[in-house]
Design goal:
heterodimer, A: about 725 residues, globular, B: about 300 residues, MetI-like fold, about 75% helix
Chain lengths: ~725, ~300
């Protein structure tokens, strides 16, 4: 590799952070190059150093970061090395001023950055227009009118209408904000754009759109892209080459259209730890352990501790250097193991207990469930007029049978979280009823509610906030027992000792509580007991905290768990573990699970049936395979196509209209009509009802049979699998 | 055998949870600032409690032949214009100032924190009613308010206490209310609700503990502040009646003699005010630090 072949060349780069007395070795001896108009993806979990790398390229690291070796060249010019550092400065002294002056030509004009978290990277007190024009005015000394005109052009380039120019960021949706930021990044025609998690926190369909937008821009503007993400399949659609980073190193570099043909054990696990929609269900593999915390230098392979194929030579620094095994395929593994293909579910010992059972009785039922929120309008509050209400959940019928896993899929704002709160007895419905075990729930009867709450337990999305930081693991898991004054000894038909957890009671009581906690922790695979019991939440990883929440839910021996996006806040390698745990709980304890998610692929992996929710309504429901293979609602198809992600497939099948997002919709008529290509007059006039299209498969579409007849997803699925092989 | 073993773990767990309870105190005494401020406060308390034993002279005893003597072995801090021993007067002044501070801040703490928690936890009408009353209290600067009270109740010990109490209640209630408000919406409180926890359980296990630390910080700072206000009131002549010794009043009385060279009349009581205000501030900061759970271990 010669540096002058490349637009950007990173040469043996190492970066350390100093935090107090602690050192963090974030990036270790990393080398790679990016050619003109090339797109490379950097994939890794949080804490692997990918964002540090991105910010180093843009020379905007915080002041406590130090370049300890190597350099970065941009068009042959050194922009980062040990003497220049990679931190931004406020031009405090002559040296810093000199460095910033050198970088002036590179910032924005050479390299620009699309930051992670579109939702926070626009200034809320300026209009979108001013923020974009500012770049032209201050960097190019352009007169105001010209800058405005150019900004409007730019907005059109990223597919936004010109009214966006005059609005404030909070008036835009997440996807629109992200596109504004992309517009800013390409404003001065840079040669390289760094996109740091460009689609995180966006909805599936919007994600798909942003990816399309970025690859279009890459072609039309001839920019090189460095995309950073934790989502390998997603980023592979946008990139020519993929770099897999682990613990501050590159462990594998390969071309992105055959990322399934990887050779490093970590890459293999990373790919197979996420369920993929386009393949039939096979077992996903959890990665044991957690990523190293990089407090000290790791000799040899950083993945050694978690690897199943490790050998002694992996500890040798020279053996784990990146070597070219095939054309354009570099691997940093001396072993290069042959991977066995993932096992089919039966072979993996799943489904042995024969769930779901036919004709088992429903544990959780919702009939006509509706929740309206009043908009707060201050003193001029006018009640019960239609404009002043948000219908979060609109007459939903739903049921979960004993031992069944049911997925509820929907985008942000579809009302799925509100529905989960209604079903978890945390919110009082405006109308309709919830039935638990056949008993109708009346939210006013607080005594009965307390009993019923033991049947249904909720696992929340954010494991970092759902445990009181002051509680140790033991007291957090034991808390439900004490608040319910549960009979501590269930096996011997206990005598109903009330309270008495922390305060002790007698010795045998403490023992029983301890056994209960032990059992719950074992079920949630939080083992060994002694390692965790006295820890505090901040000492646990995300996956461990989520297991703690699951253990806390299980200790009451509920009939049903409501899991509200339980994996969306977790690292990729830890997700598989939690998903498999939920599956195992059903197999072993026959517990029902309502799995709420935005991700079709994990819904397919986990669930027996799926409900799809759009704007508070259930638009389609059916058994998982039937719903995915024979979708009968255009929205479901859009969701599926977005998660399969074949370029252009959504435009071809559903037209550009699908991306139109407008607030509110016609009060009569189908809520999806304004985004639907198949919509006819009737769709805008009459509200469709859920109707049966095949056995147990219902769709809220006037043309359900017609849509289903097109077999859109099946075709795309076939193509997707075909193109991979 | 098994029972014994598990029972022992139970015992250990109990002692560990006890350790968690005492941990902030241990950390407080382990930190330098905490220990020093604690010692200073203890020093003041000892002086206040044993004032009659410590003071070498009667603080009210005038001796005109010994007026305005500079500090010496027989009069550690010299004497004032009426020949009273400044050291003895400072000792008794500390006693009265500490009494004012502890009584007024403690009353304000209890009322303020309770009101804040009720306002934050129950919200709606309770919140509005309580916080609007607090706004009224807050609208008066404490000095002006104290002057107004002393006009109504007459100057003296009681009016100072009422003034300081009333003006510091809103501070406590606002801080308590805001911590309760933020804790109330935490996901772990929702989680507790979903497990069937009662309102009282949530209040005592989840909401009260995090609101104790910030209000304790305020309590410590309030002690220094109260002494300051008491001194300022007496300095202005609306506080403790002379001849009862009070630090602020003593500074005020001695002010006339500073320029003519008798500095000890004002400086000595002044030093004691400065020292205790610094100590209480240090204490407040240390309490805040040791209660930050994420910094532990």
């Amino acid at each position: 590799m010669k540096p002058d072949e490349y637009l950007l060349y990173v040469d043996d780069l190492s970066i350390e952070y100093t935090i107090g007395q602690m050192r963090i070795y974030a990036v270790n001896h990393l080398s790679f190059g990016v050619r003109e108009n090339e797109s490379i993806g950097i994939v890794g979990e949080s804490g692997c150093g990918k964002s540090t790398l991105a910010m180093a390229i843009a020379h905007i690291l915080p002041p406590n970061a130090k370049v300890t070796s190597g350099r970065i060249l941009f068009r042959g010019q050194v922009i980062v090395d040990q003497s220049m550092g990679a931190s931004y400065s406020i031009r405090y002294n002559a040296k810093e001023r000199k460095i910033e002056d050198q970088l002036k030509v590179i910032r924005w004009k050479g390299i620009s950055v699309v930051f992670q978290g579109a939702l926070d990277s626009l200034n809320p007190v300026h209009t979108v227009g001013t923020q974009i024009s500012d770049i032209f005015i201050y960097k190019e000394n352009m007169p105001k009118e010209e800058a405005f005109a150019r900004s409007k052009e730019l907005l059109n380039v990223v597919g936004l209408e010109s009214w966006v120019f005059n609005v404030y960021p909070h008036q835009l949706s997440g996807g629109m904000k992200q596109r504004v930021i992309i517009a800013m990044a390409i404003s001065l025609a840079p040669a390289l754009v760094i996109a740091d998690e460009p689609t995180t926190s966006l909805d599936v369909i919007t994600q798909y759109r942003i990816i399309e937008e970025l690859s279009k821009l890459r072609k039309s503007h001839g920019v090189a892209l460095v995309n950073i993400s934790h989502d390998m399949p997603l980023i592979s659609r946008l990139s020519d080459r993929l770099m897999v980073m682990y613990a501050g190193r590159i462990v594998e570099m390969l071309s992105s259209n055959n990322f399934l043909a990887n050779s490093h054990p970590y890459t293999h696990l990373l790919v197979n730890s996420i369920p993929r929609i386009e393949e039939d269900i096979s077992e996903i593999l959890p990665i044991r352990g957690a990523p190293p915390r990089l407090r000290e230098r790791i000799p040899g392979c950083p993945f050694y501790d978690r690897c199943d194929y490790r050998e002694d030579r992996c500890r040798d620094e020279i053996a784990v250097k990146l070597v070219e095994t095939e054309q354009n395929h570099y691997v940093a593994c001396p072993v290069l193991p042959k991977f066995s293909s993932p096992k089919a579910p039966e072979a993996a010992g799943m489904n042995v207990s024969g769930y779901p059972r036919v004709n088992s009785k429903p544990v959780l039922e919702a009939r006509n469930l509706t929740k309206r929120f009043e908009k707060k309008t201050g003193l001029r509050e006018i009640k019960t007029s239609a404009d002043n209400e948000i219908i979060a959940v609109d007459s939903v019928d739903l049921s979960v049978a004993e031992g069944e896993i049911v997925a509820l899929v929907g985008e942000t704002g579809s009302g799925k979280t509100t529905l989960s709160r209604l079903l978890g007895l945390l919110e009082t419905p405006t109308s309709g009823e919830v039935k638990l075990n056949g008993i109708s729930v009346e939210m006013r009867e607080s005594k009965r509610i307390k009993e019923l709450r033991r049947i249904v337990q909720t696992i929340f999305q954010d494991p970092f906030q759902s445990v009181n930081p002051r509680f140790s693991v033991f007291s957090a898991i034991a808390e439900p027992v004490s608040v319910n004054g549960m009979a501590l000894d269930q096996n011997n038909g206990g005598e109903g000792n009330r309270g008495g957890t922390e305060s002790g009671g007698n010795g045998s009581n403490a023992t029983r509580l301890e056994n209960l906690v032990k059992g719950a922790m074992a079920s949630a695979e939080l083992l060994p007991f002694e390692d965790y019991v006295d820890k505090f939440p901040h000492q646990l990883s995300g996956g461990q905290r989520q297991r703690l929440c699951i253990a806390r839910g299980l200790i009451l021996n509920p009939k049903i768990l409501i899991a509200d996006e339980p994996i969306s806040m977790l690292d990729v390698s830890l997700r598989a573990g939690v998903l498999n745990l939920l599956k195992k709980l059903r197999e072993e304890r026959g517990i029902s699970i309502l799995y709420i998610t935005h991700d079709m692929a994990s819904a397919r992996y986990l669930s027996d049936r799926i409900y799809v929710m759009y704007k508070g309504e259930i638009v389609e429901t059916g058994t998982t395979e039937s719903l995915i293979r024979k979708s009968a609602h255009p929205y479901t198809i859009a969701l599926l196509l977005a998660s399969i992600g074949v370029q252009g497939s959504i435009y071809e099948t559903l037209g550009a209209k699908i991306f139109a997002q407008r607030e509110g919709s016609s009060p009569e008529g189908c809520k999806f009509a304004d985004r639907c290509q198949f919509a006819k007059d009737i769709c805008f006039k009459t509200r469709p009802e859920l109707k049966e299209v095949s056995d147990g498969h219902q769709s809220r579409c006037h043309f359900a049979e017609e849509v289903q007849g097109k077999r859109l997803t099946e075709l795309v699925l076939k193509n997707a699998i075909g193109s991979r092989n | 055998m098994m029972d014994g073993f598990a029972g022992r773990i139970g015992e250990i767990r109990k002692s560990r949870s006890a350790r968690n309870f005492y941990l902030p105190f241990i950390l407080f005494l382990k930190s330098k600032t905490g220990l020093v401020s604690m010692l200073i406060l203890l020093f003041y308390i000892v002086i206040a409690v044993f004032a009659p034993q410590i003071a070498p002279y009667n603080p009210l005893q005038q001796n005109l032949s010994h007026s305005l003597l500079p500090p010496s072995l027989s009069h550690l801090m010299g004497t004032d214009d009426l020949g009273r021993d400044v050291f003895s007067r400072v000792v008794f002044a500390i006693r009265i100032d500490l009494e004012i501070a502890f009584i007024s801040v403690s009353i304000a703490y209890v009322i303020g924190v309770l009101a804040g928690i009720v306002a934050g936890y129950y919200g709606k009408i309770a919140d509005n009613a309580i916080m609007r009353v607090m706004d009224v209290f807050l609208a008066f600067p404490s000095l002006i308010f104290a002057i107004a009270i002393s006009v109504i109740l007459g100057t003296g010990f009681l009016s100072i206490i009422v003034a300081i109490t009333v003006t510091s209640i809103p501070l406590f209630s606002r801080v308590a209310r805001s911590t309760v408000l933020s804790t109330k919406n935490e996901l772990y409180v929702t989680a507790a609700v979903s497990q069937g926890a009662s309102k009282t359980h949530i209040l005592f296990r989840h909401i009260l503990p995090p609101s104790i630390a910030p209000t304790l910080v305020l309590y410590a700072l309030g002690l220094g502040g109260a002494i300051n206000v008491a001194a300022a009131l007496s300095f202005l002549g609306v506080g403790i009646h002379p001849p009862t010794p009070e630090l602020g009043a003593m500074i005020s009385e001695g002010l006339n003699y500073v320029l003519s060279g008798q500095w000890w009349l004002s400086v000595m009581p002044g030093l004691f005010i400065v020292l205790i205000v610094i100590a209480t501030n240090m204490m407040g900061d240390t309490i805040r630090e040791v209660n930050d759970v994420s910094l532990r271990r």
